[in-house]
């Protein structure tokens, strides 16, 4: 995991846009938050890709909105990022 984070940081220096892949079931992990902060510190654009949406139980008509609000409640500074499912 340390190697993958180090590689992500090195790659981030060469990029214009970062894609942070977040597990839909687990939500934002501490590692996700550390990488997010590195993206912000580098001044890069960000897309948050929510992965494994098909594994979320009991989805209803408002599930995407509720999940997005929960992500933003957990980390309000994500507000500038595009969140895609």
Descriptive notes:
Helix 1 runs parallel beside helix 2. 11% of the residues are buried. The chain has three helices and three strands; from the N terminus they run αβαβαβ. It is globular. The two termini are 24 Å apart. The model has no long low-confidence stretch (mean pLDDT 90). The chain has a three-stranded parallel sheet with strand order 1-2-3, covered by helices on one side. It has helices spanning 2-12, 30-42, 63-74; strands at 17-23, 45-51, 82-84. It is α/β, with parallel strands linked by helices and 85 residues long. Helix content is 42%, strand content 20%.
Q: How much is the average pLDDT?
A: 90
The total count of strands amounts to 3
What does the main sheet amount to? 3 strands, parallel
Q: How are helices and strands ordered from N to C? A: HEHEHE
Outline: globular
Describe the strand arrangement of the main beta sheet, using strand numbers. 1-2-3
Helix content range of the residues, please? Answer: 40-55%
Low-confidence stretches: none
Gyration radius from CA atoms, angstroms:
13 Å
| Number of helical regions | 3
- End-to-end distance, in Å? 24 Å
Structural class by SSE content: alpha/beta
**What percentage of the residues does DSSP assign to strands (E)?**
15-25%
